[in-house]
Amino acid sequence: MGVDLSVITYVAKNWSVCHPKVCCTISNQNIELLAIRARPRYLPSEISNLNTINVYTRPSSNFSSVDKELKLAVTKLQKENPCSFFIKAGDINRERIGIIETMNFKNLVNFCTYPQSNSILDAVYLKGDYYSAKKRHPISTSDHCSILLVPKYTEKLRAKSNQKRRAQRDLSSDNIKVMQEMIETTNWNVLRESCDDLNELTKVISCYIGFIVDVCIPTKRVAPPDMMKRIPPDNRIKQLEKDKEKAIADGKKSLRNRIQGYKGPLISTYMK
Predict the structure, then answer these.
(1) Which of 22, 106, 238, 240 has the largest CB neighbor count within 10 A?
(2) pTM, rounded to two decimals
(3) Which is nearest to 179 in space by CA: 236, 217, 220?
């Protein structure tokens, strides 16, 4: 790179689909800056890649000079990559960077990061609502707390994967037809002759019909949104859903909440 830096940015091998590129470096008595660009495996569709700007400023730094250099670097990177997502993070030895906030970046750190003086000396700036910041223990011998950035969109995927699913038979016309053919071609005399009394015959036929159903009509797990589509049109839940949509369209929030209160227990009962 041609520049001796005091900051390092580690990138996990499987985190990016391409080799990270160093796109900006600054190293002087006031500021240490390392900016890298990469394409993570999971990004919202409107973002092309991610630029991480790692910054360190000393307690003795001239912060007015720091702000000027930081603004020039960020502006240059934004012009080069207008569709990129920018994360500016580091030990800034002050609570906030005003010049960055004037560029519509928001600091996610609102908790103490330097326990010895109960101060906020680190920052994570970004735009949008894609991430949340969580406080973590210091790494190794560091006297600063570490900060974990959690992507909010992965939380949505995780919540979707944890949705309660209900087992439901696939009552397609083809499956029903196969089951009917299997019942019609059954030799019922074989079952009757193998039983000594009516009770035994009842059990045998019941087990046989259950076997036919399991073979011809498989069970599959259905998520709640798909389950709502399968509810008959004349069901009470469907009627309440229509009433709720009308209340929302009419701007009647209290009525909407009341209808939702009726609908919730019915859905829970239906899913059992």
Answers:
(1) 240
(2) 0.55
(3) 217
